[in-house]
Design brief:
It holds the Pfam family PMI_typeI_cat. GO terms for molecular function: mannose-6-phosphate isomerase activity; zinc ion binding. This is mannose-6-phosphate isomerase. By secondary structure, the protein is α+β, with helices and mostly antiparallel strands. Among the domains are: about 45-95 and about 325-410, Jelly Rolls; about 160-260, Phosphomannose Isomerase, domain 2, CATH 1.10.441. Helices cover about 25% and strands about 30% of the residues. It has twelve helices and 24 strands. Strands 1, 4, 5, 6, 17, 18, 19, 20, 21, 22, 23 and 24 form a twelve-stranded antiparallel sheet that branches. It has a seven-stranded antiparallel sheet with strand order 2-3-7-14-9-12-16, with no helix packed on it. A three-stranded antiparallel sheet has the order 11-10-13, covered by helices on one side. A hairpin with a 6-residue loop joins strand 18 and strand 19. The longest helix is centred in the N-terminal third of the chain and has 14 residues, at about 115-130.
């Protein structure tokens, strides 16, 4: 087992306290938006030690080496041993998944993640353009897709996917300003998907002389909420939260085309490629393919490319994809994604040992309590916010009392 220290990301939408508190760090007032546990080259985890208790005589494991190397470097040095022959054959020498802790204190961007084919084409195109990989106006940081699954640890607010045209028209009714009335005309044109595409494109890219209409829409949302006349209080309140964070941004109006979703603690949502979404607030854990490709259309100070988003967005109306757990054993609930890169497990124990088996490489992160992680040759006691990378083929047992999340390869 390898002890991991995450890379933290200081994006301005992050909470200054949630992740430092979770990791046991001292908050300094700066935002900490994400903590990455994985091997993505943008922000790889640091291996801070190797666990070995072969010679231990008591309950404590021995840290025999503090490598302070990036996890990706350690895996690449011996990918078959670290990942297993099957995973190395399918995915090469890189870890195919990434585990993140996310803490939005204010809304994230309106965004879409590309498919594998779209990511490969976009990455090659930007590489050929000569843009540095870390350029602020770069969209594709790698050639991989980025499907993701979010496990809410607190109540979590988000937007995900398009409403039906009928429901969108109900929500937009009464917002009689030109930016919206023109969008309504487009929603009514053609099939539901065609209408939504046309409306979204107009709201994001059309009639640039109507930007001031966003403030008028916000005023009307406030009025109908105060009067108790809103057709969707949830949508209106989310739109007002977006307007407070990003005044005048057209993404505020575009959000009314989308499904608002509230996840309760323990609930899980899957976001496939092409699904337009935005996280609004909360604290949670994400499991995803190892990628940092995000195509943004608004609600952010970062690089926006609404035209590129229109080229890859899936406009078919669909409800948020909530994922139900499958109880596979005592103390283990699995959340399966319709992709080959990752699966998510929530493991809970209160004294009785829980056997995880050995499906392949795994990152295990303790959410609360104190857990002993054991393999036939290793043991380590992990507190909240601590994580280990477990190599392929290791038979893992959890003891103690607490809860952990594990990400592995199906």
């Amino acid at each position: 087992m390898l002890l991991l220290s995450p890379a933290t990301m200081p994006y301005d939408w992050g909470s200054p306290t949630a992740i430092p508190d979770f990791l046991g760090l001292t908050a300094d007032g700066s935002p900490v938006a994400e903590a990455w546990f994985g091997a993505h080259p943008v922000a790889p985890s640091l291996v801070t030690g190797i666990v070995d208790d072969t010679d231990a005589t008591d309950h404590a494991a021995v840290i025999v080496e503090g490598t302070h190397r990036h996890l990706g470097e350690v895996i690449a040095a011996d990918p078959v041993r670290m990942l297993g022959e099957d995973v190395a054959e399918r995915f090469g020498s890189g870890l195919p998944f990434l585990l993140k802790v996310v803490a939005p204190a204010r809304p994230l961007s309106l965004q879409v993640h590309p498919s594998a084919e779209q990511a490969a084409l976009g990455f090659v195109r930007e590489e050929r353009s000569g843009k540095p990989i870390d350029a602020p106006d770069r969209t594709y940081r790698d050639a991989n897709h980025k499907p993701e699954m979010l496990l809410a640890l607190t109540e979590f607010e988000a937007l995900s996917g398009f409403r039906t045209a009928r429901r969108a028209l109900q929500v937009l009714a009464g917002l009689d300003v030109p930016l919206v009335t023109k969008a309504v005309e487009r929603v009514r044109h053609g099939s539901s998907a065609e209408g939504m595409r046309s409306a979204l494109e107009y709201l994001l890219l059309g009639a640039r002389d109507r930007d001031h209409d966003v403030d008028a829409v916000v005023a009307l949302l406030r009025q109908r909420l105060a009067a108790g006349e809103s057709p969707s209080e949830h949508s209106d309140r989310v739109a007002l939260a977006l307007a407070e964070a990003f005044p005048g941004d057209r993404g505020v109006v575009a959000s009314l085309l989308l499904n608002p979703v509230t996840l309760k603690p323990g609930e899980v949502m899957f976001v496939p490629a092409g699904c337009v979404h935005a996280y609004v607030s909360g604290f949670g854990v994400e499991a995803m393919a190892s990628s940092d490709n995000v195509v943004r259309a608004g609600l952010t100070p970062k690089h926006v490319d609404a035209r590129a988003l229109m080229g890859i967005v899936d406009v078919r109306p669909a409800p948020p994809m909530r994922v139900a757990p499958e109880r596979v054993d005592d103390g283990i609930e699995m959340y399966y994604a319709p992709v080959e890169d990752f699966e998510l497990a929530v493991i809970e124990t209160d004294g009785a040992p829980v056997h995880l088996g050995h499906p392949g490489p795994r990152i295990l992160l303790v959410l609360d309590g104190s857990l002993e992680v054991s393999t036939p040759d290793e043991r380590v006691l992990l507190e909240r916010g601590r994580a280990v990378f477990i190599t392929a083929g290791e038979d893992v047992v959890l003891g103690g009392s607490g809860r952990a999340v594990g990400v592995s390869v199906p």
